[in-house]
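Re: that chain you flagged

S.,

Sorry for the slow reply, it's been a week of failed gels. I finally had a moment to sit down with the sequence you sent. For the record, here it is as I used it:
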Amino acid sequence: MLRRAAALLVAWVAARTLLGGFGRADEHRQLLLGWSAPPGLPSAGRALTLLVGLALLACAPRLWHGIRTAAPLAIAGLAALAAAQFENGHGLWGGAAVALAALVALGIMIRSFPLGCRNRPRRGAVLASGAAWALVSAVALAAAAAPGPPQGMRDDHRGVARLIIHSAVSLHLSPGLVRALELLILIAAVLSALALRSLLRAAPGGQGHTDAEHQAARAIIARHGRDTLSPFALRPDKALHFAAGGVLAYRVFGETAVVSGDPIAPEGRAAEVLASFLELAHSRGWQVAVWGAGGEALSDYRRLGLRWVCAGEQAFVAPERFTLTGRPVRKLRQSVARVWRRGWQIAAVEGRELDPSLEAEIDELEREWRTGRDRLLGFAMAMGEFEPEIAPDDLFVLARSPEGRLGAVMRFAACRGRLSLDTMRRVGEPPNGLNEALICRALEVARERGIAEVSLNYAGLAHLLREREAGRGGGLRARLVMGLLGGHFQLERLVRFNEKFSPQWRPRYLVYESRLGLPRSVLRVLQAEGYLRSRSAAAPSPARRPIPGMPTGARPARRAA
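Prediction finished late last night. Pasting the structure tokens below so you have them in one place:
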């Protein structure tokens, strides 16, 4: 909190400096602005003051986010402003005192800025600002060599361009060109501030992984993946971080690294993996949010100084207890019977049983389903638009129309004796209840094969809806949430669908670093899941994408070795 207060103070100093750097300085403005850009400074000094003000303004948001390199740069700028006050005899009163107070505060809290940055400005911004200042310097040299201003020129004009007006008048330049030269100084200062801002931006990264990393992560998941979200760590657009014999998957959205579920690691070492990643993320200027965390890891997150909020619940069904008999599942039983009556056939095959012709049919259905869709939803709990790596134990449930055409496919990803629903695709005009029939068939097959647990859908904020219906409070919160989000995200509809299978509900959490950073973390998660657009995300393509790091034109193996 103190760090952010210091950032606001620096922003205030910068704003006052900039307001004092433009136009005439009359008595009224001096009363309002006080110390900002003292009128006694020569025009070159006022231009320098403007530049320092823009630099401080560029540093302020980076100080707010805790960028380490921004603190010494802001201290240097504040020292320059304070020195300007002393130079003009203002002493410690007014602006010098404010600048020195901000300087001392930053110096005391220098260790409170944990984040690194790219530490290298963009070349284009540096070249553009250098060229602009070269033009300004050329005008200044011309002004120095020119004779004094014509008689009658007012000497009390105070502004950023006083230095160049002398040259402009002596060279008989038009007033329009004088204004253009004033604008050039402003442009040069702004370009310099942009170059500084690019220096302080977070380092790039967090987009995809190589084939070697993919294979290493897959081996770790096969040994230690205890969560139904574990298979989705292999999604090709996620970067991978390895530490302590484990791995976590993440992707960077707007300087926030969104971690996909809990770290996957040997027993008791997940906290070490996350601690290692926090150190890496902070060195690159990223904040961290863990999306889809399970309740078992909350104690580890607390020890690392992180916070969390329940973001919804995931539905799990135990196949051995699932049944279609009895009055509670009457509607579900009717849905399944309706599909059979209309002549649809439902079959289940494992990944090892897929042949090339069936794969081609599934691919064709996928292409047809994606027609007209510019993006797909899902991140932590789905493979999204990417080519799935087919493991031998993955389960595919297929529905064929009476004419024998493939009309719907569900894929359940397998991991250490569990299944997790990944994709639900259907085309044409299938009968109502087809999705329910496909899931029922998957649960029957899972029971026959001794699978202990099947994960269905994640329902955002489901805990609020279920609390309201159970009379445990949360009614007002649930009504507000449904009013704001229900229509857009179809929260209640998904809860109702999952409830048909009498699931066990388990909470999923959003883990974040600070209270003030929670809104940003929520925004980045919504971008990761595809609900909001993000400049960090490439536009989806109907074509399947290879694993990043593979040679161009190569197609990854569909089947796990």
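What I noticed first: Residues 23-42, 149-173, 538-557 have pLDDT under 50 and may be disordered.

Talk soon,
D.
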